[in-house]
């Protein structure tokens, strides 16, 4: 398993990891419980403050932990973790400690109590800032208050879910910087 | 330029195209004007009704057209259109007709007045269903009311924006269906 030497990463730049649309692992902790869920439905909503919208279904055990603690960590796995990502989505934290079951290493966060997952490429510590659409859509808006990512590789081999058991693995990079007007990057 | 022979596609299955997180082109029409914008911040929110959350900044000309008409089309381009996708993001529809400038072909929608872009791989006709977070976050929730996609290729070579002029091109497929519990696909 690759381990990453992470450093602080600017929270206003986390689009680099989230905007391409990878499946992520959301970790949470509340009242002595901890959990991980697999999440595919999320989006960047603002650079500064660094906002991310997420769909956490009320059927998930994590819904309670995130709602109660008003915090979570968005962890970005790479293709090496693909089997675990599926496994984590297949079982419920109400019955099993997923950190133990999937042999994942916790790291304490700087700003939230939810644990970071060491084996993931990047970790985004998040606080809930707007839950008004939680009841109707299970939609949470978080602010990324601290981000951890390695200097290298710059572009991780993330996995992107298509449904029906099929993933897309992040492919080649395409540099179109020359086509952008200054200020539009 | 590849042209696609499209057919009706089930709206509850559009995660196949949107969940991996591609950059999309949003087309709109209102009071004799039409426009296209490049959009990277979006997410699936529900299967049925088929809901998609989108960030359309009030600084964009499309914000007015979408807000006024309460409709749009989400068009999914592939890597062949990458230069146009950047060009569309570089200029404002208040000054130029982007369909003409970028030589894109309009197709009439079945359920909305906004035009579909023929050169895109798939087209999702959308109606605004919830705009309550529009004022604070420029956040729109649309329902996909009609979808058009070709039978082949099943997995398009979409492009995924990382910021700073860098895109990721959709890579290889990874079939992990065997690992899923029934009902979790």
Describe this structure in words.
The structure is a homodimer of 185-residue chains. Chain A is α+β, with helices and mostly antiparallel strands and 185 residues long. In chain A, strand 4 and strand 5 (51-55) form a beta hairpin. The model of chain A has no long low-confidence stretch (mean pLDDT 97). Chain A is globular and about 50 Å long. Chain A contains five helices and twelve strands. In chain A, strands 1, 2, 3, 4, 5, 6, 9 and 10 form an eight-stranded antiparallel sheet that branches. In chain A, strands 7-8 form a two-stranded antiparallel sheet. A two-stranded antiparallel ribbon of chain A has the order 11-12. The first copy, chain A, starts with 5 loop residues before the first strand and ends in a 10-residue tail after the last strand. Strand 12 (166-175) of chain A pairs antiparallel with strand 12 of chain B.
Brief overview, please?
Two copies of one chain form a homodimer. Chain A has 185 residues and is an alpha+beta fold.
